[in-house]
Amino acid sequence: MKIDLTVPVREDLWHDVFRNEQMASLGHLGTHFDVRDKKFDLENTIRCGKLVDVRHVRDRDIEIEDLGELVIEVEDFIIFHTGFLKEVGYGGKVYFKDHPQLSRALIEHLLDKKVSLIGLDAAGIRRGEEHTPTDQYCANRGVFIIENLNNLDLLQKQASGKPFSVYTFPINFEGMSGLPCRVVAEV
Asked: Are the C-beta atoms of residues 93 and 168 closer than 8 Å to each other?
């Protein structure tokens, strides 16, 4: 079964995003990753996916302990299911300002494990002024952050402990700080 994890972009969402997000530009719309000055290696277009259910985490950062018994392999695509996109909807002020975030220790842990991609159903792995520098820090270590993933409830239901692959296809834009992409999981 294939599951589209990409946020659909409609014209009304386009306008909402630009009204509510300072970083908004074509490259940062919908499901995307912030490339900064790094090139997305085409080897990343297919990776083994691992889903982490952290819908219960609110009022604190998502921590290493929240990974539970998850076994992380080199080059995995680790996806955090926060439930936030489904809860508040994509594009509003709350979505961009109050989203769940990963702790710095968890980010370091994932980088040390040499994952290829980190994704979540929220606007970033860190909020506010820490967003851009953290994305750059990860990109400098060869890890891209896929923001605004969708349909993670369906992925959770279908995968439920089974292995799955994730296909990530960025649009071939040049000279932009973000690249929209189509992300599809295959269970």
From this structure: no
Which residues are registered as beta bridge partners of 63? none
Q: Could you tell me the fold of the domain covering 2-186?
A: Glucose Oxidase; domain 1 (3.50.30)
Maximum Cα interatomic distance, the chain, rounded to a whole number of Å? 41
Query: pLDDT grade, residue 27 (50/70/90)?
Result: low
Identify whether the C-beta of residue 80 lies closer than 8 Å to the C-beta of residue 55: no
Place of tokens 């085409």: 42
Angle at CA 38, nearest 5°, toward 35 and 41?
A: 95
- The H-assigned helical ranges of 83-174 are 84-88, 93-97, 104-112, 131-140, 152-159
* Residue 141: burial class (beta carbons within 10 Å; 0-12, 13-18, 19+): middle
The per-residue pLDDT for range 59-94, each reduced to its tens digit, is: 999 999 999 999 999 999 999 999 999 999 987 889
Q: Which residue is listed with tokens 């990109």?
A: 139
Q: What spatial distance separates the first Cα and last Cα of the chain, rounded to whole Å?
A: 5
What global pTM score does this model have? 0.90
The pLDDT of 111-119, averaged and rounded, is 98
- Per-residue pLDDT, averaged over 120-145, amounts to 95
